[in-house]
Design a protein that fits this description.
Elements lengths: L2 H4 L3 H22 L6 H8 L3 H11 L6 H8 L5 H11 L8 H8 L3 H11 L9 H6 L12
Helix pairs in contact: 3-4, 6-7, 7-8
C-alpha cells in the first residue's frame, strides 16, 4: 500500500502550508522598502512580538530590514523558521542527499529512502521533491511537527 492510500501526502501539507508561507516570506523580503514594525515581522514569521523582541535584543538588531529579517529567522521558533534554519545548516545545496531532505523536512530517513526507491530517484532537487513528497504520508502533527 503506498502512502496515498494511507492518507494525505506530505506534498499536500507542503502545498497548503509550507509553500504559501515561503512565498509570503519571499515577497516580504523582496518588496521591503522600509523597515518592518515588530508587529508586521512577528506576524510574517508566525512568532509572538515578545519572542521577536527577545531575538532582536539578543542579536542586537534595532530595525527590521531585509538583512536583519533573515537573521531573525535564524533564531525564531516557528515551523517555517526552523525549516529555514535546517536548510541553512546544510548550506542550501542544489542537489540534496536523502539525509538532508530527511533533516530539513523532519521526515524519517527510512520513509525518504522508501519513497526514493519507489520512484527511482537518485538526485533530489527542488524539481524532484514534489514527487518524493507525494509518496510520503503526512505526519499527524502537520506542519507544527516540523
Amino acid at each position: 500500500m503506498n502512502s496515498n492510500e494511507r492518507g494525505a501526502s506530505f506534498l499536500e501539507l507542503y502545498q497548503t502550508e509550507i509553500a504559501p508561507q515561503l512565498q509570503s516570506l519571499d515577497i516580504i523580503i523582496k518588496s521591503m522598502d522600509e523597515p518592518l514594525t515588530v508587529t508586521e515581522a512577528a506576524e510574517a514569521l508566525y512568532i509572538s512580538e515578545a519572542e521577536l523582541q527577545n531575538i532582536m535584543k539578543r542579536l542586537q538588531i534595532d530595525e527590521i530590514d531585509q538583512q536583519s529579517f533573515l537573521r531573525i529567522m535564524t533564531g525564531a521558533s516557528s515551523p517555517i523558521c526552523r525549516l529555514y534554519q535546517r536548510e541553512l545548516d546544510i548550506g542550501s545545496p542544489y542537489v540534496y542527499t536523502r539525509e538532508e531532505v530527511s533533516y530539513i523536512y523532519s521526515i524519517p530517513i527510512d520513509i525518504v529512502n522508501q519513497a526514493c526507491e519507489e520512484l527511482g530517484l537518485f538526485k533530489l532537487t527542488a524539481y524532484t521533491l514534489p514527487d518524493l513528497f507525494s509518496r510520503v504520508n503526512m505526519q499527524p502533527a502537520g506542519f507544527s511537527g516540523l
